[in-house]
Write a structure and sequence with these properties.
With 312 residues, the protein is α+β, with helices and mostly antiparallel strands. It has 12 helices and 12 strands. The longest helix is centred in the middle third of the chain and has 19 residues. It starts with 16 loop residues before the first strand and ends with a helix. The relative contact order is 0.11.
Amino acid sequence: MLKSSNKEKYKMSDRQIVRKSYELITAKNSWSEVEAKLLATFIKELNPKKESDFKEIDITINELERFWGEQVHTTRIRKLCADLKGKTYEIPIYKDNKKIRYDYVGLFSIIKYHINERYITFKFDDEMKPHLLEFSRFIKYKIENILRFKSKYSISFYEYFKSQMFKKETIKKELLEIKDLHEWLKLPKSYDIYNNLKQKVLEPVSKDLKEHSDIYFTFIPRKTGKRVTHIEFNICENVSKAQRDILFNEDELVSEFQKYIGKSFIYKSVLYENINTITPIGDLYKVVTDTYGMNFHNLKDLEMLIKAYEPE
């Protein structure tokens, strides 16, 4: 049982929404996946609609284990608390569209681990108010989307791409320079080599988002001269695997769409190019089912869309 002289035992809320400012999401970071997950769990406990100041919050390890669906070892939690207390965000400050300085913002004024009672006490630092309580531009998402990620970079990519989902296009395109990815995520020097970046970051993150979250992306390397200098990301809403499996398993889907690879079509003024590369199977399925509002067992309707599109 929690021991506290001035407050009742705190029970983890049923709130599921994580809210962060855009500045936090795009700030330089080197989070591990567990640090980012624990921070998101702390943030979801805030209630910015009703709170204007931070307060001390207690979370028991039992609650944390139930919420995450995994056991959390005491030594691991102690290390996480120590690491989070030392973390800072490096936030660029602009004036007249020019970067004039960096602000280094600490996360917590208080973070404690109570050994015998097995609970954490934390309180965010007041410098975090503009980013967690007083939003000008903020991004929100359900925490369930990040709890199963395996790559240390997945949460950063997920949060950034969620910030792009306000765009009207069915597929949101984002062109990022590799050197900016390095600066943002503090990547190892070896990831300057594109194949290393692809194998260690892009492919694992793409798999994480596709399997566990409500969005996903495909990516295409872009060259300047002979060197890959940019990555083009195509970001889409995710159709759940369970929903796709109502009709086809993954192998059947690939087989079913095979003859359309390389084809293009237009839907709601959006050009879908090079099917199965620019437009992955899950998104193609969503477009067609949304278009006709039905579960289909053939692709005649899609074929009509393709035939109707005649490139100039």
